[in-house]
Automatic annotation (TrEMBL):
Gene3D superfamilies: Glycoside hydrolase family 3 C-terminal domain, Glycoside hydrolase, family 3, N-terminal domain, Immunoglobulins. Belongs to the glycosyl hydrolase 3 family. This is beta-glucosidase. It comes from Candidatus Methylacidithermus pantelleriae. Keywords: Glycosidase, Hydrolase, Signal. It comes from the Bacteria. GO terms for biological process: glucan catabolic process. The gene is bglX. It is an enzyme of class 3 (hydrolase).
Length: 764
């Protein structure tokens, strides 16, 4: 029996994907059909997109630009739902080019046979899905993976996710999400790389390389689709789908670099954002889609809209009706209309009337067909149906190598924020341990948003992970304490009794997964419900506490950060989160994660980010300076910060040359030493400041990082090279310049402090 998962339409059930039938975990990975015609029906043969385009009718051309969701929006968990019946005659007529949300080799093959064997031209369907942080094996959310500062690890995660998805009929992932944001109120921060364009670019490159490998045509690979072009992370107030107003320098310096890297890595498609940018919705923004994306960034691939975004041009007030919306979107450069039906209903008529040229239509169709040729659909449209091994579906039936990778990814993603008096790591032979909190025994929320075909039953909870670590002599107590978002305190007494009886209480708090992701914006970034009240109660009773925060964003928790002795930011860590957290708690793994975002003290500080521009009156410059009067101006924890169970010191920053010409390069290095008692890994970070320039520049900018592993007492000299790409910036008109002047550099363990030095760039 084939197995497939499905999701509700994005507009209806944001970020939720549902498993539809059983036995996926126990099925063998599928591989594309390369066998004789007896395995699958014979197919028509085309050499390239031009040959095929010349044979197509107007309606067939439009059909290639139409993408539909393959499942109803009102499906229930566990339903076995085939493709909507009304789409089958449209596929036979060549009126649908791609389908999202329909998965499973048996299911996709059945639809593919209609397209290949029953339509006039036999053009295959391209099946896509939001494979954001795993398909069946669910890894930490992308924000957490960014906290690993480990592009190689991210590439492995993407490659494994691609193999699982490709085995079940998917060829195209609507990922990675590479939107930089300075606003953690925005729920989709969970899906992205954080606040910094350099780190985001490294992650974008790793995701694309992992999904695609040497060629996304190869078995076990997916075509990537970086999203959401562009500046979606700058929505006003952090409120999803809201308006974006962004300066041109910020556009070039902050929001475009990750897309540029993803395209350079070979991404063949890009998804346009829902939002209006500087007064023009992206689905009709020809300057950004045609001039910036295609001309400036050199993108040649497919641009598709986000969910129903073409039709929403009417709601934006930019189009008078669906005909006008179709015209504007195609003129702007949107090749594929996702789910709105606007292209299907209007484009052919618009071409016949001469409102839209057929040549413009052909450009879009040509790009879609080229993608289908490149992904190998015309050679191999089908997927072999996996065979059941008869064991049924259980969490331990997931591939061992996937679980091992998920555990490693979670270990490296967790950030140790506080460890007073070296409370951690804990001994496995404690007399008693209490595990408390609404997320301690939770499975579903550890998956996080956008968890594709992941099952809560696959998740190892924090409680289970801790139980597996403790000796048989240790007494383990558990109390939920309160709900994630409820107002009841009826469980407080039980939690207090457990904590008082234990030598240490591990308190697991945070968000529900639905509180982040799409449509998951929050106006307040404190712990929901009564969770902080629970932590206060235990602290004031004198209990020794370790607090673990599970969330899709940084939370403003100043009281907890000031009072509890040990604090972990563990994000939504995926199926092996419980084991990974236990590994870290008891010293079987050493914390090495670093924050990819700034943690605010208060929601009122937002936007707060490390790479801000200076002002004429910076904090500390006098009584009338840029500060708050009611809280410190500094963040709760800075970008790049993260502790270890050992300690690293930096010294002796050396700059190869004190002066370099414009266009030249300079090598820098510094010693980093492990001065603690344990082996540890440190993410060494390089920051730069342009001291005087024609535009105000950030006080610091990340320009490099390296992960090093050092034994106690061991030192290493870590070297970086800076060149024009790192030293330059964009002017208002988009021109990239490297200006003569003085530059300051830092090499350290976060965006604050570090060994420092200077050099100059000369005009001659």
């Amino acid at each position: 029996m084939d197995v497939f998962c499905l999701s509700l339409g994005k507009a209806q059930a944001i970020g939720a994907f549902f498993l539809v039938s059983l036995n996926l975990a126990s099925l063998l990975f599928a591989q594309e059909v390369h066998s004789s015609p007896t395995a699958m029906p014979a197919r028509r043969s085309y050499h390239n997109e031009e040959e095929l385009l010349a044979r197509m009718t107007l309606e067939e051309k439009v059909g290639q630009l139409v993408q539909v969701s393959g499942v109803p929006e009102n499906v229930e968990l566990g339903e076995t739902v085939p493709l909507k019946e009304e789409y089958k005659p449209l596929i036979r007529a060549g009126r649908i080019g791609s389908i999202l949300n329909l998965t499973g080799a048996e299911n996709t093959n059945a639809i593919q046979r209609i397209a290949v064997e029953e339509s006039r031209l036999g053009i295959p369907i391209l099946f896509g899905l939001d494979v954001i942080h795993g398909y069946r094996t669910i890894f930490p959310i992308p924000l957490a993976l960014a906290a690993s500062w480990d592009p190689g690890l991210v590439e492995q995660v993407a490659a494994f996710s691609a193999e699982e998805a490709r085995a079940h009929g998917i060829r195209w992932t609507f990922a990675p999400m590479v939107d930089v944001t300075h606003d953690p109120r925005w729920g989709r921060i969970a899906e992205g790389p954080g606040e910094d364009p350099f780190l985001a670019s490294a992650m974008a490159r790793a995701w694309v390389r992992g999904f695609q490998g040497e060629s996304f045509r190869s078995p076990g690979r997916l075509a990537a689709c970086p999203k959401h072009f562009v500046a979606y992370g700058a929505v006003e107030g952090g409120r999803d789908y809201n308006t974006v107003s962004v300066s041109l320098p910020a556009l070039w310096e902050l929001y475009l670099p990750p897309f540029e890297e993803a395209i350079a890595a070979g991404a063949p498609s890009v998804m346009a954002a829902f939002v209006s940018v500087n007064g023009r919705p992206m689905a009709s923004n020809s300057w950004l889609l045609r001039h910036v994306l295609r001309q400036e960034l050199g993108f040649r691939g497919v641009v598709l809209s986000d969910w129903k975004a073409v039709g929403e041009l009417i709601t934006h007030g930019i189009a008078s009706n669906s005909r006008d919306a179709a015209r504007q979107a195609l003129l702007a450069g949107v090749d594929v209309d996702m789910e709105s039906g606007v292209y299907a209903a209007n484009l052919a008529e618009l071409v016949r009337e001469g409102v839209v040229s057929e040549g413009l239509l052909d450009e879009a169709v040509r790009r879609v067909l080229r993608l289908k040729f490149e992904v190998g659909l015309f050679d191999n449209p089908y997927t072999i149906v996996p065979r059941s091994n008869g064991e049924g579906e259980h969490s331990n039936a997931l591939p061992r190598e996937g679980r091992e990778l998920a555990r490693l990814a979670a270990q490296r993603s967790v950030v140790l924020l506080k460890n007073d008096n070296n409370l951690l790591p804990l001994s496995k032979d404690l007399h008693s341990v209490a595990v408390i909190g609404p997320l301690a025994a939770d499975q579903e929320n550890l998956l996080g948003p956008w968890h594709a075909c992941g099952h809560p039953s696959d998740v190892v909870t924090v409680l289970e992970g801790i139980r597996a670590k403790l000796s048989s002599k240790t007494k383990l107590l558990y109390a939920k304490g309160c709900d994630i978002n409820g107002e009841s305190t009826s469980g407080f007494a039980e939690a207090l009794r457990a904590a008082k009886e234990a030598e240490v209480a591990i308190v697991v708090v945070g968000e529900a997964s639905w509180m982040s992701g799409e449509a998951g914006s929050r106006a307040s970034l404190g712990l929901p419900g009564k969770q902080e009240e629970l932590v206060r109660l235990l602290y004031e009773a004198g209990c020794r506490l370790v607090v673990i925060v599970l969330s899709g964003r940084p939370l403003a928790i100043p009281w907890i950060a000031d009072h509890v002795p040990a604090l972990f930011q563990a994000w939504f860590p995926g199926i092996e989160g419980g084991n990974a957290i236990a590994d870290l708690l008891f010293g079987d793994a050493i914390p090495s994660g670093k924050l990819p975002v700034t943690v605010p003290r208060s929601t009122g500080q937002i936007p707060i980010y490390y790479n801000h521009e200076n002002t004429g009156r910076p904090p500390g410059s006098g009584p009338f300076s840029s500060v708050y009067i009611d809280i410190p101006t500094t963040p709760l924890f800075p970008f790049g910060y993260g502790l270890s169970y050992t300690r690293f010191v930096y010294r002796d920053l050396q700059v190869e040359r004190s002066s370099i010409p414009v266009g030249g390069t300079v090598r820098l290095s510094a010693w980093v030493q492990n001065v603690g008692q344990r082996t540890g890994e440190e993410v060494v970070q390089l920051y730069l400041r342009d001291m005087v320039s024609s535009l105000t520049r950030p006080v610091r900018e990340l320009k490099g990082f390296r992960r090093v592993r050092l034994a106690p007492g061991q030192s290493a000299r870590v070297e970086f090279t800076l060149g024009p790409k790192e030293l330059g910036f964009h002017l208002e008109d988009g021109r990239f310049v490297v200006e003569p002047g003085k530059y300051q550099v830092w090499i350290g363990g976060s965006s604050e402090g570090g060994a420092s030095g200077f050099f100059e760039v000369s005009a001659s």
